[in-house]
Amino acid sequence: MRTMTRRAMRGVGLLCAAALSLTACGSSDDDTASDKSVSGGDLRSALKEGGSITVWAWEPTLKTVVKDFEKKYPKVKVKLVNAGTNNDQYTALQNALQAGSGVPDVAQIEYYAVGQFALGKSLEDLSNYGAGEYKDDYSPGPWNAVTEEDAVYALPMDSGPMALFYNKKVLDKHQIAIPTTWDEYLEAARALHTADPKAYIANDTGDPGFMTSLIWQAGGTPFKNRDTEVTVDLTADKGVATFTKVWQKLLDEKLLAPIENWSDEWYKGLADGTIATLATGAWMPANFESGAESASGDWRAAALPQWKKGQQVSSENGGSSLAVMKDSKSKELAYAFNEYANHSDGVQARLKEGAFPATTADLSSPSFLDTTFPYFGGQKANEIFARSASQVPEDWSYLPFQVYANSIFKDSVGKAYVSDTTLADGLKAWQEKSVKYGNDQGFTVNK
Asked: What is the domain partition of the chain in residue ranges?
C-alpha cells in the first residue's frame, strides 16, 4: 500500500556522490564471491542454524512479516529499521556503502531506483538462489523492473497497475461519460470545467513518475540502457509525442487544477468533487478512505483511458522491491527472508493489511477478485486492477540514474506547468540535463 509520505518523496535523490565512478557505490566484496549457486538445502541449513539480519524498509506491513518469520524460524532474529522513505533511505544506504560499514542485509528499493544500485554492483544477483525461476509468478511490470537479462536484483513486493478513479456523483451530475480514451478525457475536461468553473477533471503540477507512466502506456521507450551505454530520447520518442499532444492542450486551456498531490487542498478536492478523476496506481484506495472519507460511495474505478481507441494497454505507477545487499554477511538468511516476504506466506500477511500484490496467483485468485470496496459503492475494483496488471508493456526501462533525473524534473519539465514554456521545450531541457549528468558520471549517453 502506498502512503502519503512515500508518494510525496518519490523521485528525489542523488547518486553516491558528485563525480562518482560507476562502481563507487559497489560492494567491498569481490564481485565473484557470491556467484556460486545456493540450493534450497543451503537455505534450510542456514535457517536451522540461525543468526540475525537487518532489514531497511518503510513499508508498514513488513512488521507483521517479521513477526511471523521469527515465529516460524525462532533461531533467526530480524531487525527492521525505518531508515527513512525513498531519498532519505537511499542516501543513508549510499553513505553506508561508501563507508563500507553499516550496510543492511536487505533493503527496500523502489522499482525506478533498482537500476542505480544494480549498476553500482551493490545488489546480490538472486538468480544464484533460483529466483530466476519465478518470472511467471510475478506480473510483467514489476518483474521487468528487477531483472536485467538473466540477473535478478530484487524480488517484487507490490505493484501499482494504473486505473482511472473517477467521482461518479460529479460526472453523473453533469452527464459526462466515463472517458475510455485520452481524447475523450480532454473533451470531458472541457465539458466539466465549462459546467462548473470550480471543478477540474484532475490536478497536475508536474510529476515525473506520473508522466513517465503515461508515456510508458503510450508505447514510449525514451530511456534505454545496456551496461554503461544509455539513451535518453525525450524529443523524438513516439510515446512522448503522443502524451505531449494531449497534455499540452490540458495545460494550455487551464483544465488541470494547480494543486500538489498529497496536500490538504488535494484531499479536499477529492472529497468535495472539485477534482473529478485521478489516474494512478492500484495502491490508492486506502488513501481515499483515510484522506477523503466524506466522499465514500461517490468514487469508482475504471480502466485507464487508452491512447488509441480499442486498445487494452496499461502502465505501472509506483511499487517497491526487496533486495539483498552484496555486503551482507548473512546472504542465505537475507534471501530466505526476502523469499518469505515476497514469494511465500508473507505475501498473504501483507495483502490482509492492504498491500497490492505483484504475484500473479494472488492477482487471479477468486478471494482477491471478489473483494468488494464499500468506498467504491461495493464495486469489485480488484477485477479492474488485476486486468490492468496483465496489460502492462514489458519493454519499459528506467535510467540507471533515474533518481537524479527525477530530482531535476521540476526545474525543466515543471516549468511548463507554471509558465509559457511548452512541454516539448521542458522535455528537451530535461533530456539535455540528464545527458550531461550521465556523461559526467562516466556513462556513455546519446553518443
From this structure: 4-159+319-361, 162-316+395-445
Structure confidence at residue 31 (pLDDT): 46
pLDDT in tens, 6-32: 333 233 333 443 333 333 444 444 444
What string of DSSP letters covers 268-320?
A: HHHHHTSB-EEEEETT-HHHHHHHSGGGTTTEEEEPPPBSSTT-----B---E
The model's pLDDT over 310-351, given as tens digits with 9 standing for 90+, comes to 999 999 998 999 999 999 999 999 999 999 999 999 999 999
What's the confidence (pLDDT) of residue 198?
97
Q: How many CB atoms lie within 10 A of CB 125?
A: 21
User: For strand 223-226 and strand 229-232, is the pairing parallel, antiparallel, or unpaired?
Assistant: antiparallel
- Per the DSSP assignment, residues forming a β-bridge with 379 are 373
- Determine the pLDDT at residue 296: 98
Asked whether the beta carbons of 64 and 353 are under 8 A apart, the reply is: yes
pTM of structure: 0.85
In the chain, the N- to C-terminal Cα span, in Å, equals 40
Q: Which CATH class is domain 4-159+319-361?
A: alpha beta
**Dist. CA 11–CA 333, nearest whole Å:** 31
Left (φ > 0), alpha (ψ -120 to 50) or beta: where does 385 sit?
Answer: alpha
Helix (H), strand (E) at residue 162 = strand 162-167
C-alpha cell at 378: 461495493
Q: What is the CATH number of domain 162-316+395-445?
A: 3.40.190.10
How far is it, in rounded angstroms, from Cα 11 to Cα 414?
Answer: 13
From residue 20, alpha-carbon distances to 101, 227, 294 in Å are: 19, 16, 49
